Amino acid sequence: MLLERGENKVNQNIEVINKHLWAVKFSFLPFISEINYVPDDTVPVDEEVGQLLDTGIILLNKEHKLFEVYKDGFCRIMNKSNRQIKNELSNAKRIPNKDKWQILYMEMLKLEQKRRKIERGEL
User: Fold this and answer.
1) Whether this model's pTM surpasses 0.85
2) Which residues of the chain, if any, have pLDDT below 50?
3) DSSP of 28-91
4) Is 103 a member of any domain?
5) Fewer Cβ in 10 A, N or C end of the chain?
6) Which residues pair with 80 in a beta bridge?
7) Cβ atoms within 10 A of the Cβ of 23, count?
8) What is the pLDDT of residues 21-47, one digit of tens each?
9) Rounded to whole angstroms, how far apart are CA atoms 112 and 82?
């Protein structure tokens, strides 16, 4: 487990944005024992956006050029109810010819749905 119950100290290289959203420079991952994730060697470190960990934490890469966009987006999405996320995904499916930002937002909504399923023990 990344943090034991009652423990509030985290590696200084990990930015805990909220309990479900963390950020770290992926180039530091080999040196951070608290995170059990190894990035794909075939993908340049600054191109990997993040990862959904099996603990239900979304880990964002601070070295990705759109890090702040993802951070802000996930913070907003995580405040939505399950119903709101479901409705937004349903509405988005009806939009033909989505632009790259609409596609990105849909994928973020889907990832948050999956994260919540992991948290509830459904996956």
Assistant:
1) yes
2) 1-7
3) GGGG-TT------TTS-GGG--EEE-TTS-EEEETTSTTHHHHHHHHHHHHTS-HHHHHHHHHH
4) yes
5) N
6) none
7) 22
8) 999 999 998 888 888 887 778 889 889
9) 9
